[in-house]
């Protein structure tokens, strides 16, 4: 099996790291939701050696993630666990993980516009139930503001997403912030990222 490669991950890893270096400076255990190809996990774990980086995704993506982790000789990145937000066992997996070691950081990239809105809701419910107080949460991807696309390329991307799955699509930042508030998350900063993306930085207050 050839190791998968995402050009988008390659392009955005350094700008994202510039935020994570500060946000996760005192974090010890990060859970990544939707590790995808595994590129981010391999890169960020090497650049942030003081923490444990726990990968997760659907089972079908585990081989790809493992190929990237296989290349790391000594790694603080953990092999992927299955977190399927559509499945009944997703919350149990989070609970088991948080029972074994306090999760004080969460990262996800390019997931909220891929999954359906009910699963976005479940994503924040998982944060509410399983992340410790003062945990830092970083969410990367494109968002709409006041119901409008921030660029023509994002509008075209949204059309492409919906052609694949009508339940996907770029989310309104206002809706995301409402869910974040319900999960006891406080927005620290909305970072501008390349290619009309954002990185939302939160802290869990209770």
From TrEMBL:
Q: Which domain of life is it from?
A: Bacteria
| Species of the source | Colwellia echini
Q: What is this protein called?
A: DUF938 domain-containing protein
Pfam families in alphabetical order: DUF938
